[in-house]
Amino acid sequence: MKSLVKRMHRREQGFTLVELLIVFTLLGVLAAIVIPSVAGLVNYGHTQSGSAELSIIQTAMDSMMARENLSTVAPTTNTTNMAAFPSDHPLYKNYLRFPTSKGYYTTDNVGLVSLVSNGYDN
After folding, report:
1. Which of 6, 16, 58, 110 lies 20 to 30 Å (CA to CA) from residue 40?
2. For residues 69-93, b (16+ Cβ closer than 10 Å) or e, as one string?
3. Distance separating alpha carbons of residues 39 and 84, to the nearest angstrom
4. Do 95 and 68 meet the contact criterion of CB atoms below 8 Å apart?
């Protein structure tokens, strides 16, 4: 019995080169499938966060204009500074929680806020 156990253990030497190549090939194929999917999810998240932030800023602008009884505001161009929306009635102090945003926004004289860049563009 002892000789049988010795013969079985003597033949076990580890993985062959072919087995290792198969494993690395499978890992490479999985990585080629997963990485683009994750990158797509990240881009989708950036798009959705930009849309959500735009909606929040537009709602704050509408609230400010209604509360202050304004029909027009000073236009603002390409800013992340929420205190500049519009320059004569800052949005930040009374209507938004944070003084800056991730994205860049503009506003026209009737209070329509537009997204220039979501802040993730290179």
Report:
1. 58
2. eeeebeebeebebbebbbeebbbbe
3. 34
4. no
pTM: 0.70
pLDDT in tens, 7-58: 666 666 788 889 999 999 999 999 999 888 888 888 898 889 889 999 999 9
DSSP tally for the chain: helices H, then strands E: 3, 3
d(CA 85, CA 60): 10
Rounded CA gap, 95 and 64, in Å? 7
Residue type, 72: T
Look at residues 109, 107, 105 and name the one whose alpha carbon lies nearest to residue 73: 109
Annotated domain spans of the chain: 18-117
Q: Are 104 and 119 in contact (CB under 8 A)?
A: yes
Q: What angle do CA 14, 23, 17 make, to 5 degrees?
A: 45
For residues 105 and 116, the answer to whether their CB atoms sit within 8 Å is yes
